[in-house]
Amino acid sequence: MARLPGNSQLLDASGAPLRSIRAINRLKVAEKERHYAGLLPERLRQLLGLSGYSMHNDSGERLVTFIAPQGLALVRIEVRKRPDDSDTVFFLELSDTQFHQLELCFCVICDPSAPRFDVDVDEHGKINWFASHGRNIAEELRSMRAGLFPNQTRRGLQLFSEFFPLLERFTDALGIEMIVAEPLSYDNAIRYEKYGFDYLRGKRLMREIDREFRPEGRYYKRLDGSTPFRMPGMERTVRGRSWAIHDGIMDEPWDDVQIYKVIGVNAGVEMFPDREQEKR
Predict the structure, then answer these.
(1) Which of 65, 97, 173, 251 is most buried, taking the most CB atoms under 10 A from its CB?
(2) What is the end-to-end Cα distance of the chain in Å, rounded?
């Protein structure tokens, strides 16, 4: 049963309730695509010239791809400015969990007109899987100096605040009460707090990070200029801390952090309350 005001249970064409990604994926292609298309923010549609629930621009080019195989509990939505672009403007992956939750696996929203930084490949041009298989230091430096966060290939479109309410209403319409996610970086975790998330795992780590980046803390003392990602003063911003963590300043890797959002509830968690605002 839907919990958000004005929302209602998602139904298939016969009027039967839909309660999972797997259930939507059983539908005929046109019907399931119509349900998933509702997750695309209106400003993204306007930017790309997509009207209504159309997946095509004014030139008739299909810009939206849904990967939602029948029998699987996963959907991937890829939106490109041009059909043959290698990079997406909007990338979303959702899945069911065994506990009847919705997992927000990935969400990446990029400005296609912004400069690209090849931080997603190593120095030899091989995909580095979020820097877990090598880094491209030169590109990371360019990216950081341009004001980006770790793992960002392009500046964002500032669209997550428009997307997330759509995701929350979609989740609610399935009768699901909780969204879970695993933030890939420190800045992701802080960003999700703004949307009402709390921590299933990792709250101890987040408290430790905040403590140790303060004067006399271990990480504070390691901001010694030994690398461009460890400069004094970086402790004051989310971006600075995130780049230092990306550079390996912690005693343990960034890992095993899981967050959750109860539909309609803002947890009010803030693990870096006195941070300086980012300068864009």
Answers:
(1) 173
(2) 42
